[in-house]
Design brief:
mainly beta; 4-stranded antiparallel β-sheet; 6 strands; elongated
Length: about 190
């Protein structure tokens, strides 16, 4: 009995693999052979039939006629948006003696005037700086909460001489970008 079940199961599996599927029966399209005059001897599988362009030496049944023509007009519109960018380089040089507090104003120029009021602000890579790297913050960069003009004039650097413990010339590079959105709560609050 066990052998009979195994044999029946094996016959059932073989019959499914051998028989054509119901989906493909009747849906096969015959392949059309190419005329022998067009097939090239070098590459017979990739021969493409020529399209007759005139009826001089071509039979009337081989001609192809254009039945419908259309004229299509296209119009393209492009919105070009140029982002706000800082175009000015800012170099600030000053001498701090002793416990002086220096406030140095500077201007920031943008490539154009912002189109929205109270929407864009200036962002610095660092706004609180330890210029002499002694562990105490001594230099602060401040800008207004929003920029609404092409040239912003209310920016300044404030340096506290009491927090600078190392004498000498100190340099720092700070990157300036334009930030989008609400920036009332800024990280660069001045002492």
């Amino acid at each position: 009995m066990k052998k009979f079940k195994i044999l029946f199961l094996l016959i059932l599996i073989v019959s499914f693999k051998v028989s054509p599927s119901k989906e493909n029966v009747g849906n096969t399209k015959p392949t059309l052979p190419l005329p022998p005059s067009i097939i090239s001897p070098e590459n017979p599988d990739y021969a493409v039939p020529e399209i007759p362009t005139s009826g001089i030496d071509v039979d009337e049944e081989d001609l192809r006629y254009l039945e419908t023509t259309y004229t299509v007009m296209m119009e393209a519109k492009v919105n070009v948006f140029i982002p706000l960018e800082v175009i000015s380089d800012i170099n600030i040089e000053t001498t701090v003696i002793g416990n002086q507090i220096k406030e140095i104003p500077f201007e920031i120029e943008l490539n154009r005037k912002p189109e929205k009021e109270n929407y864009y602000s200036i962002k610095y890579s660092e706004s609180m700086i330890d210029i002499d790297q002694d562990g105490k913050m001594d230099t602060y960069i401040h800008s207004p909460a929003f920029i609404n003009e092409k040239i912003t004039k209310d920016n300044y650097v404030k340096i506290y001489g009491e927090n600078i413990s190392k004498e000498g010339k100190h340099n720092k590079v700070v990157y300036v970008t334009v930030e989008i959105g609400n920036s009332i709560l800024r990280e660069n609050k001045v002492k």
